[in-house]
Design brief:
Layout: H1 40-51, H2 74-78, H3 101-107, H4 123-134, H5 138-141, E1 172-174, E2 177-179, E3 185-187, E4 190-192, E5 212-214, E6 217-219, E7 226-228, E8 231-233, E9 254-256, E10 259-261, H6 269-280, H7 310-316, E11 318-319, E12 322-323, H8 334-340, H9 359-370
Antiparallel strand pairs: 1-2, 3-4, 5-6, 7-8, 9-10, 11-12
Helix pairs in contact: 6-9
């Protein structure tokens, strides 16, 4: 089921009559009461647009706390989504208005400051929003694939194009289809090189038996290439078998003439890496250099990724699991482990509350580290 706009109608009388006109048609009209949203579109126009998406707040360009209230896919931002702050409280819990972080922030009963910063939403409107959430059924709000959070079937690698239709572990989901990295083919549950895989030689499922796979054709030998577990590999260029079978270059490196090298082009911290932090990590309330934030790399003050401060913060940060950035060694850098989710040390994968960074963005950061993590 594709995502649909919510259409749960709640009368203003349900919210203490805050939004209704009083008196009969012949009598004088009362002034209109506070806004009483009855669906997500009205919540956006009556509350978010006038109060929440100003510069520096929850617009698409700022995303304070990792929350974008200007997006056209608000369902994915709100329903069942954990906050990047407040201990991971859920932004909207269908059927539980008072337990939803959105309502608690508007009432001032959650962590941090009451929202919006420069004013308050009338209590009657907040009551209206809470009552609307109380009557929500998450299955009618969007596709959840049996869980609590909205699922974007266009980009979710575990539900790509349809629920429970998972992509291979190294693939990404683009427009509802799995895309393997580096021109590899999706064969069953994995991404493979059909030019060298003896189990999928030339095409998925085309096995070679006891023969080798050479340039997509089953062969009695590998010719000038190396035999790596039945696959004919060019160890001069293969980053997973660089110079010898099983010699993996690791993140951020490529294989050139049988030697692992840190990328073919120099990665600039200012021009290539910092924009990634600006877009995904340094929004207000996250790694923005503000006060507070417990834990190693777990809060705002522990790692400042804002422009002008990020380089020093990264290179000076250490944890019980090692350095956040180890120049020349992406695999020993906690930053890469946190971004890939493969070596977390503590806490959760970053960016918290948002989908993981695309592989090419992580590779850019890893390549910068591999090249020495210079302030360039």
């Amino acid at each position: 089921m594709g995502m649909v706009r919510l259409a749960v109608v709640i009368t203003c009388a349900l919210a203490l009559g805050a939004c209704s006109d009083s008196g009969d048609s012949a009598g004088p009209r009362s002034e209109p009461g506070p806004a009483c949203p009855s669906d997500l579109e009205q919540l956006s126009s009556q509350v978010f647009e006038p109060s929440c998406i100003d510069a520096g707040c929850h617009g698409s360009a700022d995303r304070a706390g990792g929350l974008d209230l200007e997006t056209s896919t608000l369902e994915l931002e709100l329903f069942g989504r954990e906050s990047a702050l407040c201990g991971g409280e859920t932004r909207i819990i269908a059927g539980d208005g008072d337990g939803s972080l959105l309502v608690m922030k508007l009432r001032g009963t959650a962590c941090g400051a009451r929202m919006p910063i420069d004013g308050t939403v009338p209590d009657a409107t907040v009551d209206c929003i809470s009552a609307w959430i109380d009557q929500l059924d998450s299955s009618s709000a969007c596709e959840t694939c049996g869980g609590d959070a909205c699922i974007d079937l266009r980009t979710d690698a575990q539900h790509c194009g349809a629920c429970a239709q998972a992509c291979p572990s190294t693939a990404t989901c683009v427009d509802g289809g799995c895309v393997c990295p580096g021109g590899l083919d999706e064969c069953g549950s994995g991404c493979t090189d059909v030019s060298s895989d003896p189990a999928n030689c030339g095409a998925c499922g085309a096995g070679c038996g006891d023969l080798f796979c050479l340039a997509g054709t089953c062969s009695a030998d590998c010719g000038a290439l190396a035999n790596c577990s039945g696959a004919c590999i060019d160890i001069m260029t293969d980053s997973q078998n660089c110079g010898a079978c099983g010699a993996d270059c690791g993140p951020g490196a490529s294989c050139v003439a049988g030697i692992c090298q840190c990328g073919s082009e120099t990665v600039s911290f200012a021009n290539d890496v910092q924009p990634i932090f600006d877009a995904s990590c340094a929004s207000a309330g996250c790694h923005d250099g503000g006060p507070g934030g417990p834990g190693p790399m777990g809060g705002r003050s522990s790692l400042d990724l804002t422009d002008g401060s990020s380089f020093a913060s990264l290179l000076n940060a250490t944890t019980n699991c090692g350095p956040v950035v180890a120049p020349g060694d992406p695999e020993s850098s906690l930053l890469i482990g946190k971004l890939t989710g493969l070596a977390l040390c503590t806490g959760s994968q970053m960016p918290k509350g948002d989908p993981p960074l695309a592989d090419n963005l992580i590779d850019t950061i890893a390549t910068w580290i591999c090249q020495g993590a210079d302030d360039n």
